[in-house]
C-alpha cells in the first residue's frame, strides 16, 4: 500500500504541471494532441472544450457526439482541421440516419444527399445494388442511394425513410460504408501548424489560444520530472526491501544445538496461480446453435458479436450465457470465459445461480 501511494504521488507530480504530452490509445498509432485530449487521462488544459476523446476496448479513439453516440476516430488531420470517423460497431448507415452535429464543434464536409428506402424483402431492384444488411431483416430490405435514377426507381416501389446529408470522406462516393469527414473551425490552429508550431490554451483562459514552439523543450522538461519521480520510487523500493530483510533476520528463529554454525533455515513459499475463469465442462454446457440465413437472434439489434465486433454470418455457431441471455460467437465467448467469470457486455456473473426454493 505504501509503494502504491508513493508511486502515484510521484506520478501525479510528473503530470500535474501545465506541460502536455502527445498521447494515443493503446494499440492505435493516431496521435492525440491539442485541441483533442483523452478525457480523464490528461489535464483539461491540454485540450479544447468539445474535443474530448475516450479509448474503445479495441484500442481505437472514440469521439462522442451527444445526439448520435460514439464514433471511432480513423484519422485526425491537424493541419487541415479535419477528422475521419466511422461506426465502431460496423453499421455506419444507422449512425448516419441519426447524425446530428448540433452542440458539437464539428461541421460536415463534402456532403452528398442520400435517400434511404424500406423495400419488401421480395422486391429486387433492376440494377445490382447492395442492400444495407445491418438495417434489414427477413421481412424487409433497406437501400440507400444518392443517384437520381436509383432514387426514382426506389420511390416507385418502396417506402421513403429519410433523406440525409452525408459528409463523405471522398467526393461523389456511392458507398455509405466509407468514413465520414468532419471539420472544425474553432479553435483555428492552422496558422500555428503551417509554421511548425503547436496550438495551446493561453494561461488562465478556457478558449483563447496561442502558438508555441514544438513540444521538444516541454517534453525534455517533463521527461526529467518523470525520471526524477521514477528514481525516487526505485530508491524507496530498495530502502523498504532492505528494511524487510533486516526485520526478517531479527525475528527468524535460530536452530540452537541442531547446528554448530547456527544457520537460519529459510522457508520458500510458492505462489499458486489462481484461475478466475470458468472450467471447460461449464463453458461447454452453455446453449449454442447454428445461425440460419435470417441471422435472427432472440434479442433485437443483436447482429454483431460484442467481443470481436464482427457481424454474424449464416452457418456460424453462436453461444449464449444463460444468466443474461447475451449472445456471442462460440469461439469468442469460450476464450473469454476461460479467463473471466462474467459477461463481457453486462458484467453479470456467468455462473448459473441455483434456483431458489419457493417458501
From TrEMBL:
Membrane-spanning segments: 225-248
Record-linked PROSITE patterns: ZF_RING_2
Catalytic activity: S-ubiquitinyl-[E2 ubiquitin-conjugating enzyme]-L-cysteine + [acceptor protein]-L-lysine = [E2 ubiquitin-conjugating enzyme]-L-cysteine + N(6)-ubiquitinyl-[acceptor protein]-L-lysine
Lineage: Eukaryota, Viridiplantae, Streptophyta, Embryophyta, Tracheophyta
Principal subcellular localization: membrane
Entry protein name: RING-type E3 ubiquitin transferase
Stated family: Belongs to the RING-type zinc finger family. ATL subfamily.
Location in or out of the cell: Membrane
Associated pathway: Protein modification; protein ubiquitination
Signal peptide positions on this chain: 1-16
Pfam families, alphabetized: GUB_WAK_bind, zf-RING_2
Topology in the lipid bilayer: Single-pass membrane protein
Keywords, comma-separated and alphabetical: Membrane, Metal-binding, Signal, Transferase, Transmembrane, Transmembrane helix, Ubl conjugation pathway, Zinc, Zinc-finger
InterPro entries for this protein: ATL20-22-like (IPR046948), WAK_GUB (IPR025287), Znf_RING (IPR001841), Znf_RING/FYVE/PHD (IPR013083)
Domain of life: Eukaryota
